[in-house]
């Protein structure tokens, strides 16, 4: 059952790849032409595809999805350090890039790092205990957790306040492996730091493993309404579309008791 659902959601995710709709339309039109189907039908499919690409490239679709994914987290960056004692701040990795054989954190990682450090600093300046749990292995030779840790230490965070979860390869594993660590720590409160567009799915997965994180969105993405389609709008719309499919997958798997 799970294998079949995994396959189906991978198929759905193909529709969130840049301009996959164009490729699909070309294939359908070619098949219809070979089978001598109606010329009007082929033209209709072509026009529909062009309209959808324009809708994506002009930023209309992205603007709607952006609100769905991020609106609830626009004010979560406010510090809440006075409300709890001994919290843990979980930071999700944002990816690794390799340039000239040198591995660096993806640009999204730095907004997450800054947000986590600001919250951590609010506690420490009041002499309150606080830990940072960095979750992410990534696909490089060095883990995201390791690279994050090095930068946090440069910012003045001591080793004793840094916990590394360096095995997870995706958001599901971020939640699963982090929950195993957190349940042994039993923190009074848990903050979750990740990008705004990624927060809804992340919170849902952490709740799946019995945790109730306080969301702290580190950054937000949006599209711009333009007369002519552009790559900026298309790129961010497809990123957000993929996130929507991921949320649906979490919801389906949770309803079937398969996210364990």
From TrEMBL:
DUF218 domain boundaries: 88-246
Taxonomic placement: Bacteria, Pseudomonadati, Bacteroidota, Flavobacteriia, Flavobacteriales
Keyword terms of this UniProt record: Membrane, Transmembrane, Transmembrane helix
Membrane-crossing residue ranges in chain numbering: 12-31, 43-61
Protein name: YdcF family protein
Pfam families registered for this protein in UniProt: DUF218
PANTHER family per the UniProt record, alphabetical: ENVELOPE BIOGENESIS FACTOR ELYC, INNER MEMBRANE PROTEIN, PROBABLE PERMEASE
Superkingdom of the organism of origin: Bacteria
């Amino acid at each position: 059952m799970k294998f079949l659902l995994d396959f189906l959601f991978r198929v759905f995710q193909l529709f969130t790849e840049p301009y996959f709709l164009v490729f699909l339309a070309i294939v359908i039109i070619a098949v219809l032409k070979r089978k001598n189907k109606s010329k009007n039908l082929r033209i209709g499919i072509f026009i529909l595809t062009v309209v959808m690409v324009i809708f994506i490239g002009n930023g209309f679709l992205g603007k709607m999805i952006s609100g769905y994914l991020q609106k609830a987290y626009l004010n979560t960056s406010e510090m809440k350090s006075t409300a709890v004692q001994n919290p843990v701040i979980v930071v999700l990795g944002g990816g690794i890039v390799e340039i000239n054989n040198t591995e660096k954190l993806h640009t999204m990682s730095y907004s997450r790092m800054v947000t986590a450090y600001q919250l951590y600093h609010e506690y420490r300046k009041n002499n309150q205990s606080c830990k940072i749990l960095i979750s992410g292995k990534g696909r490089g030779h060095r883990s995201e957790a390791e690279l994050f840790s090095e930068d946090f230490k440069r910012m003045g965070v001591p080793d004793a306040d840094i916990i590394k979860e360096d095995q997870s390869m995706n958001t599901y594993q971020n939640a699963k492996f982090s929950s195993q660590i957190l349940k042994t720590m039993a923190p009074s409160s848990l903050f979750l730091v990740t990008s705004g567009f990624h927060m809804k799915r992340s919170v849902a997965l952490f709740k799946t493993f019995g945790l109730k994180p306080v969301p702290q969105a580190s950054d937000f993405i949006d599209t711009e309404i333009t007369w002519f389609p552009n790559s900026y709008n298309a790129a961010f719309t497809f990123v957000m579309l993929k996130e929507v499919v991921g949320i649906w997958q979490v919801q389906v798997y949770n309803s079937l008791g398969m996210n364990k």
